[in-house]
Amino acid sequence: MSVTESTRSIAVAAGALRAPKVRQRKVLLVAATALLILLIWQIASAFDASGLVPTPSGILLAMPGVFTNPSFWIDTLDTSLAILEGLAIGVVFGTLIGLLTGRVRWLRGLTAPYVAGLYAVPLLALVPLATIWLGYSPVARLALITVAALLPCIVSTVDGARKIARELEDAAFVLHMPKRRVLFDLVFPATLPYIMAGVNVAIGRAIVAAIAVEFLASVPGLGRFILINARSFHQDASIVGVFVLVVLGVLGTTAVEAARRRMAPWHNPRGEK
Amino acid sequence: MNQPVQGGAVVELSEVSMYYGSRKVTDAINLELRRGEVLSIVGPSGCGKTTLLRAVAGLNRPGSGEIRVDGVPVAGAAPEGVSMVFQHFGLFPWKTVEANIAYPLVVRGVRKKDAVEQTRRLVEMVGLSGFENSYPHQLSGGMQQRTGLARALAVNPRVLLMDEPFGALDAQTREVLQFELLDLWATSAVTTLFVTHSIEEAVLFGDRIAVLRGQPSSVVELIDVNLPKPRERSVMATPEFARLREHVWNLVMSNEVPA
Ligand SMILES: Nc1ncnc2c1ncn2[C@@H]1O[C@H](COP(=O)(O)OP(=O)(O)OP(=O)(O)O)[C@@H](O)[C@H]1O
Ligand SMILES: [Mg+2]
Q: Is A176's CB within 8 Å of B107's CB?
């Protein structure tokens, strides 16, 4: 335990040495770009006579109203929890299925066509079916989020489990790695970066799935909040909802990246730190 | 288990033919390694050197013939006390230097205290003190291969299989590691099969040199290297070394370059 801990702190320290300057510049760049876009947006909207195009200032003014509205927070919490739950189920089962089918050839042969097919199907096409089977309910939403998260996890994990370097397999054999430990000592760690990449894709797809069901099946949540506000000409409030979605997505991928650094400090794509 | 086996094992290959599918790669290879002997294996690319080495490790099964380590046939599993050093090091990237070296001990249920001590000794031996907690990607190629060597030595092997262990290293690092390997053999005899593309290395290391050739390949000549033991790099300046090198070169290259 202490061994891994001290390595981790070394890695963290090494990162911290370079980080401040680089991060400062990055933040500055992002802020400058955002400001520029907002400025162009504000100026351009001055030429719109209909008043239907939301403006940055309008959105800013709408924020207090939205953020003090308890039903907005209930909707946000509702959708966020559903996404988290579906992601958790999808990631856990997707990883297990991926590891298993990645390693056992006949299982892979059996499942590959369905996985590939389902992965290619636009999720929107499944919403009507889900509502027939599960009703216009949060359960249908959860089911769709789960399926949405499951598939990229399976695909990426299978990919990783199949790409384990032959030398590592040979080393495991020659070193007498027991069969029962192969999964945890070889396959799982070797596949971990691929699993993480799958989770990253899954986050985006899970958000899309949640919003899609809320739109199409009128399940209460952030998606319906956006839809209702847009339909009742509260475009500014609607856009605030969209921003919250963006924040959710960014938070998710940031968390995955942080987890990757923690769980797989050895993984170093293209030599970057 | 942690007592060094005196002088390594006797390794016998009798009539070993290796196949990939229906394609025969080696044809009835006969080799016998004495205890502690270093046998260099050279031959043109694709002649089956790696395949033979993998067979001794139990990774590939011979289509016919038998391989015995101290009289016990190699069948399916990796024989106990047979270690391998890989061309691309074969280190677990998610394990630190220390954890990589200790892994074969952990797997064998060696007590933690003993494993830690043994690992420390090995780290010191291969000159990696201070890098115990580094991950392989943080090390140079030479340091990675030192880790690979230490891991292979952790179980006090009777047999060491090395498949172009220095092939992925630059010339200078290669020479340093050659020197260290000679040192190792001088202090503890372990029967070694050493596959290399470098004819100089084959002569420098080998007690004998097996030259493989043909499709399927066979041993075209088994050359005794009568250079003083323990071997030192200075032998490379002797006329006998030059003679052997020329001889092996002609054997290996006779099919590859037009006369
Ligand atoms: N997994 C495999 N499946 C099918 N054929 C293989 C496989 N591995 C090797 N071969 C073939 O067997 C022959 C011997 O391969 P091997 O790797 O043992 O040669 P080698 O002497 O080690 O060559 P090199 O010096 O290039 O490393 C080659 O012709 C190669 O194409
Ligand atoms: Mg080879």
A: yes
pLDDT, tens only, B4-57: 445 789 999 999 999 999 999 999 999 999 999 999 999 999 999 999 999 999
Residues from chain B that touch A270, judged by Cβ atoms under 8 A, are: none
Domain range for residue A31?
A: 1-47
Distance CA B198, CA A107 (A): 44
Length of chain B: 259
Inter-chain residue contact B91 with A171, CB threshold 8 Å: yes
C-alpha distance from residue B229 to each of B38, B185, B206, B226 (Å): 11, 10, 10, 9
- Residue B154: closest C-alpha in chain A: A175
CB B154, CB B122: distance < 8 Å: yes
- pTM assigned to the model: 0.83
Same domain, A99 and A31: no
- Residues A200, A88 share a domain: yes
- Tens of pLDDT, residue by residue over B221-253, are 999 999 988 888 889 999 999 999 999 999 988
Whether B78 and A177 lie within 8 Å, measured CB to CB: no
The verdict on A31 and A130 lying in the same domain is no
Interface confidence, given as ipTM, is 0.90
Give the ligand whose atoms come closest to the C-alpha of residue B44: 1
Instruction: State in Å: Cα A109 to ligand 1 middle.
Output: 28
